[in-house]
């Protein structure tokens, strides 16, 4: 089985071709958000380097959110176009799961955090014990709430993700459990991790047709949020 | 001609709130034209919400493209090139179509042709006027654009004039909101105006000094708002139909006057209109009359080809493809792309 994996959920743009027991190619750039211009050329370049026949792919795995709304859509639309043209399914990998999978086999809890702005982080808590376990599903919460949750769990934790430089000091202050931060080679999105987890998903039958795929933003748009708030106020005013 | 191989273009358009795909044969024959309109969603907000539009495009785009291929009865393998709108428009919305079209072209091994949205609107005229060929003059009027253009050749344009402020369609939307008609303003004003007197209220006809072909609609919009406020302050009611008809007449008068100046100046024998506002019945009638008076042939697309659609993008892509225009896998969305630039 061979999978093409994409992650453009954050500052990183990453593409990889992954098989069951090895990664054939991976191209990761953590520099400026120009994913619209870089993602497909990156796929093209690795495909040429490894003489990839696109028709040998079983599926396209894509980091499906949360993350930058625009970045997610570039990844999703690219995956959907490839899936449509090649007539193969997509595998929607939650962004935080893909990130956590960078640290496969960690003895401690794994907690990826992404800066979600509005004083929140996109985060989740994962563990490796007889496989990959979701301790807390991905969500958008204030970092203080995350720290409380981790203190409650009372286990050692390792952090990664682009939220670390933003919230490291806060976490150091609030956490009462032993914790550390993943080093540079594994602390941002990597398509190889999305692909490796994608193979697990594929084995479990967790695929979708390309037409059915859409990112999971974990947040409604600003206009919808403001409209909901306005309507709530109006309802309260009526009472 | 019969021994010549057909050229099939798959076209994708997502620059605003319509998710659209089409298959076009030889630049003139529309084999399919699928449009998923999000207008009901945006009506809740009184206008297009970019983030909602982008999300909806992502959800619907594969279905729309698959339907376009199925209705045309062609497979992706039979397509010669993929055309896609890459600007101007809402950047987040454009990016969905661009990323999707690039991936399809790449995986199917087809050339990619990035298309200018306005070039598409102009090209919509080729669909139902099979004998129309450049050179001709064209007025592009929509919610985002008001351009008076000389089409020198396929894909080659001189912009003679443009709006200095609001686009014509934008003025329709704003006035419609002010008089309580809501969004989208164009079709609503068109309908209500039929019951009104176009000479009831003397709204200004703005002409831009030193720029014969430029337009300005913000003054007109303010005049309408002032009129309404004046009525309210005096405790008078105003006739929605009269305001709509008088406003529409003011817009139409200016568009026709500038267009006919250009027709006379350039000695054009053919004049076309394009864009969403080109489906306005009063504008069509006035242009028709002005052209007939001058013995000029008047072209306009059916309403379905006036509003955003992918068929027009496929037509424009065909002529670009024939000229040898090719886009790379690094094609980006360009929200403020100028006509004639690449």
Protein chain pair with the most extensive contact, residues per chain: A-B, 36 and 37 residues
Structural class by helix and strand composition of chain A: alpha/beta
The CATH superfamily of the largest domain in chain A bears the name: ATPase, nucleotide binding domain
Task: Return the CATH architecture of the largest domain in chain B.
Answer: 2-Layer Sandwich
The CATH superfamily name of the largest domain in chain B is: ATPase, nucleotide binding domain
User: Which regions of chain A contain 5 or more consecutive residues with pLDDT less than 50?
Assistant: none
- Alpha-carbon distance between the two ends of chain B: 32 Å
Q: What's the number of domains of chain B?
A: 2
Strand content of chain B: 15-25%
Q: Do you know the CATH topology of the largest domain in chain B?
A: Nucleotidyltransferase, domain 5
Here the CATH topology of the largest domain in chain A equals Nucleotidyltransferase, domain 5
Q: How far do the termini of chain A sit from each other?
A: 60 Å
What does the overall shape of chain B look like?
globular
H-E string of chain A:
EEEHEHEHEEEHEHEHH
Structural class of the helices, strands and pairings of chain B? Answer: alpha/beta
Text of the CATH class of the largest domain in chain B: Alpha Beta
Helix count of chain B?
12
Tell me how many strands of chain A there are.
10
What does this protein structure show overall?
Chain A: This is tRNA (Adenosine(37)-N6)-threonylcarbamoyltransferase complex dimerization subunit type 1 TsaB. Chain A: It comes from Mordavella massiliensis. Chain A: One of its GO terms (biological process) is tRNA threonylcarbamoyladenosine modification. Chain A: One of its GO terms (cellular component) is cytosol. The complex is a heterodimer of chains A (239) and B (342). With 239 residues, chain A is an alpha/beta fold. Chain A has seven helices and ten strands. Chain A has two domains: 124 residues, Nucleotidyltransferase, domain 5; 85 residues, Nucleotidyltransferase, domain 5. In chain A, the strands form two sheets. Chain A has a five-stranded mixed beta sheet with strand order 3-2-1-4-5, with helices on both faces. In chain A, strands 8-7-6-9-10 form a five-stranded mixed beta sheet. In chain A, α1 packs across α2 and α4 crosses α5. The longest helix of chain A has 18 residues. Chain A starts with a strand and ends with a helix. The mean pLDDT of chain A is 97. With 342 residues, chain B is α/β, with parallel strands linked by helices. Chain B folds into two domains: 132 residues, 2-Layer Sandwich (Nucleotidyltransferase, domain 5), CATH 3.30.420; 167 residues, Nucleotidyltransferase, domain 5. In chain B, 44% of the residues lie in helices and 19% in strands. Chain B is built from twelve helices and ten strands. Chains A and B meet through α1, α2 and α7 of A and α2 and α3 of B.
């Amino acid at each position: 089985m061979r999978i093409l994996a994409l992650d453009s959920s954050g500052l990183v743009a990453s593409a990889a071709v992954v098989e069951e027991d090895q990664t054939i190619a991976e191209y990761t750039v953590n520099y400026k958000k120009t994913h619209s211009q870089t993602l497909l050329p990156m796929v093209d370049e690795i495909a040429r380097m490894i003489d990839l026949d696109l028709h040998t792919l079983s599926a396209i795995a894509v980091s499906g959110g949360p993350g930058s709304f625009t970045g997610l859509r570039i990844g999703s639309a690219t995956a959907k176009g490839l899936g449509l043209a090649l007539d193969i399914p997509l595998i929607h990998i939650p962004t935080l799961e893909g990130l956590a999978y960078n640290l496969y086999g960690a003895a401690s809890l794994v907690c990826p955090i992404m800066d979600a702005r509005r004083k929140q982080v996109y985060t989740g808590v994962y563990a490796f014990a007889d496989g990959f376990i979701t301790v807390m599903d991905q969500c958008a919460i204030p970092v203080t709430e995350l720290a409380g949750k981790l203190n409650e769990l009372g286990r050692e934790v390792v952090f990664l993700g682009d939220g670390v430089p933003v919230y490291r000091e806060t976490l150091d202050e609030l956490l009462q459990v032993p914790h550390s931060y993943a080093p540079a080679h594994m602390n941002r999105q990597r398509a190889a991790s999305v692909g490796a987890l994608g193979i697990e998903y594929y084995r479990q039958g967790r695929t979708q047709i390309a037409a059915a795929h859409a990112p999971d933003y974990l947040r409604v748009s600003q206009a919808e949020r403001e409209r909901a708030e306005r309507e709530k106020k109006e309802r309260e005013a009526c009472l | 001609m019969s021994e010549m191989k057909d050229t099939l273009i798959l076209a994708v358009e997502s620059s605003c709130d319509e998710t659209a795909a089409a298959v076009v044969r030889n630049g003139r024959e529309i084999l399919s034209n699928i449009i998923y309109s999000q207008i009901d969603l945006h009506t809740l907000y009184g206008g297009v919400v970019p983030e909602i539009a982008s999300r909806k495009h992502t959800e619907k785009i594969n279905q729309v493209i698959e339907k376009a291929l199925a209705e045309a009865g062609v497979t992706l393998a039979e397509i010669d090139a993929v055309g896609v709108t890459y600007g101007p428009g809402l950047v987040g919305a454009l990016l969905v179509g661009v990323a999707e079209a690039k991936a399809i072209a790449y995986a199917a091994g087809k050339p990619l042709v990035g298309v200018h949205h306005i070039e598409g609107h102009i090209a919509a005229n080729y669909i139902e006027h099979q004998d129309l060929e450049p050179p001709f003059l064209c007025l592009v009027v929509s919610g985002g654009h008001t351009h008076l253009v000389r089409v020198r050749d396929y894909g080659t344009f001189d912009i003679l004039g443009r709006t200095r402020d609001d686009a014509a369609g934008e003025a329709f939307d704003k006035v419609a909101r002010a008089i309580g008609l809501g969004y989208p303003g164009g079709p609503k004003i068109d309908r209500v105006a039929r019951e009104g007197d176009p000479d009831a209220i003397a709204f200004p006809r703005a002409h831009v000094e030193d720029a014969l072909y430029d337009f300005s609609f913000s003054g007109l919009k303010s005049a309408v708002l002032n009129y309404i406020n004046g009525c309210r302050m005096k405790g008078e009611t105003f006739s929605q139909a009269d305001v709509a008809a008088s406003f529409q007449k003011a817009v139409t008068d200016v568009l026709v006057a500038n267009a006919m100046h250009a027709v006379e100046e350039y000695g054009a024998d053919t004049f076309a209109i394009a864009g969403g506002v080109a489906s306005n019945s009063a504008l069509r009638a006035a242009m028709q009359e002005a052209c007939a008076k001058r013995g000029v042939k008047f072209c306009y697309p059916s309403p379905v080809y006036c509003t955003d659609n992918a068929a027009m993008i496929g037509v424009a892509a065909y002529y670009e493809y024939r000229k040898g225009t090719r886009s790379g896998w690094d094609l980006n969305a360009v929200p403020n792309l100028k006509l004639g630039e690449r």
